[in-house]
């Protein structure tokens, strides 16, 4: 069966809105380290890691061994109705790593579910359905998380269980405040936050949810310190702050273990997923104990905290620490950022990011008009040269580069060379 046959079957039985990359989509059938192989036997260097999920790469023996050890017990699942030792142990580690006082952890199966849980807890704790979110944000595909997503391309419905007000700050390149200095930019965004609170809400807002670096929004981020300044305002109103760390957590940004730490502030809650499982389905929330415990009704998580995911996630945390992958993310990311910025290609409107979380915003030469067509061509050109990258941004014109955190210097140079060559080809 060819990929074309599989694509026809895919279209027949799966939703039309289930996005696929490439004019001729590929099936990945084997992988090792940072390389994947498709059904035709072609190899690719992976610079998108399953949307930042395969954070350690592929076929990592320490992680696979931990999962096999759990499988050998015969127990894949028991549910949270029973004690799960590995769940308790992993929660203790994450609570300590979070820096949140008296933290408690709740495990889910995805980032969407984690963010949905955070919104439910915050609205219950504050007895309010009003929520603040960032423009150009993305928080998942559930009813509530779509409701707080500030990107029309990923927000399919105006219906929502929460009332949302959007504030400036997360996406600087096209912001009306873009020409300001860092300090002035922060001041302007904080002033906007205050104005929104005073004019667009009744004051008793439940929470603000924000990504330290906007993922689907094109790896965009504000100046360091913005969220500290915003939280000072939120605290005056008693509003909770939720940091969506689904893509920024576990050291990927290089500078800090959590993306929000760049802003020198401790949130009331953080959500996580993706890279913690290195491909295993896992997500969760770590938050103040009183916030987590605010529900009066019973609840469980059927698959959240399952022994297989817990074993794999614990091995991932060990692998990050044992191999100092946070430092590696910073070093390799700096090489990629420096190399991209040095090209001087007129298609590059903005090259941004931290660590191995890099966004390349493509524009039409001579201005800032989004170049969506160039981004689509770059996807095909890099694939043809043996490199997989991602794409996003409000206008679909941002290349998203996020290799596994185990990326080597040689692989960084190889991938950079392919991106530069592809840019030259479409120029």
Automatic annotation (TrEMBL):
Q: Which InterPro entries match?
A: Aminotrans_3 (IPR005814), PyrdxlP-dep_Trfase (IPR015424), PyrdxlP-dep_Trfase_major (IPR015421), PyrdxlP-dep_Trfase_small (IPR015422)
Subunit notes for this chain?
Answer: Homotetramer.
UniProt keyword Transferase present: yes
A GO MF label: transaminase activity
State the SUPFAM superfamilies in the record: PLP-dependent transferases
UniProt entry keywords in alphabetical sequence: Aminotransferase, Antibiotic biosynthesis, Pyridoxal phosphate, Transferase
Q: What is this protein called?
A: alanine--glyoxylate transaminase
Q: What class of enzyme is it?
A: transferase
Return the EC number: 2.6.1.44
Q: What family does this belong to?
A: Belongs to the class-III pyridoxal-phosphate-dependent aminotransferase family.
Cofactor(s) named in the record: pyridoxal 5'-phosphate
One Pfam family of this chain = Aminotran_3
């Amino acid at each position: 069966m060819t990929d074309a046959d599989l694509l026809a079957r895919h279209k027949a039985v799966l939703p039309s809105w289930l996005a696929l990359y490439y004019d001729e989509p590929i099936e990945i059938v084997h992988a090792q380290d940072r390389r994947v192989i498709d059904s035709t036997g072609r190899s690719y260097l992976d610079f998108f890691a399953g949307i930042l999920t395969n954070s350690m790469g592929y076929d990592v023996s320490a992680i696979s061994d931990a999962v096999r050890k759990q499988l050998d017990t015969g127990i894949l699942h028991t549910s949270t109705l029973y004690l799960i030792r590995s769940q308790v142990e992993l929660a203790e580690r994450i609570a300590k790593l979070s820096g949140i006082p008296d933290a408690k952890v709740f495990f889910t199966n995805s980032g969407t579910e984690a963010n949905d849980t955070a919104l439910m807890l915050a609205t219950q704790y504050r007895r309010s359905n009003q929520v603040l979110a960032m423009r150009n944000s993305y928080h998942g595909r559930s009813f509530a998380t779509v409701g707080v997503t500030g990107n029309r391309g990923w927000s399919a419905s105006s219906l929502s269980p929460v009332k949302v007000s959007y504030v400036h700050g997360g996406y600087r390149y096209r912001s009306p405040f873009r020409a300001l200095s860092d300090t002035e930019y922060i001041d302007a965004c904080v002033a906007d936050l205050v104005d929104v609170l005073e004019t667009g809400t009744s004051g008793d807002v439940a929470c603000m949810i924000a990504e330290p670096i906007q993922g689907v929004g094109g790896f965009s981020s504000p100046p360091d310190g913005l969220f500290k300044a915003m939280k000072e305002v939120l605290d005056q109103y008693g509003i909770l702050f939720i940091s969506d760390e689904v893509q920024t957590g576990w050291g990927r940004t290089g500078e800090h273990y959590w993306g929000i730490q760049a802003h020198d502030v401790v949130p009331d809650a953080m959500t996580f997923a993706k890279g913690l499982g290195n491909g295993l389905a896992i997500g969760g929330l770590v938050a103040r104990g009183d916030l987590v415990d605010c529900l009066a009704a019973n609840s469980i998580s059927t698959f959240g905290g399952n022994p297989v995911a817990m074993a794999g996630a614990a091995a991932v945390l060990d692998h990050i620490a044992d191999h100092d992958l946070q430092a590696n993310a910073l070093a390799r990311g700096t090489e990629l950022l420096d190399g991209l910025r040095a090209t001087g290609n007129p298609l590059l409107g903005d090259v941004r990011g931290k660590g191995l979380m890099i966004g390349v915003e493509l524009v039409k030469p001579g201005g800032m008009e989004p170049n969506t067509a160039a981004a689509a061509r770059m996807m095909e050109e890099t694939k043809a040269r043996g490199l997989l990258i991602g794409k996003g941004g409000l206008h679909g014109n941002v290349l998203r580069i996020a290799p596994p955190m185990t990326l080597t210097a040689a692989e960084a140079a190889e991938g950079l060379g392919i991106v530069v060559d592809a840019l030259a080809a479409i120029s």
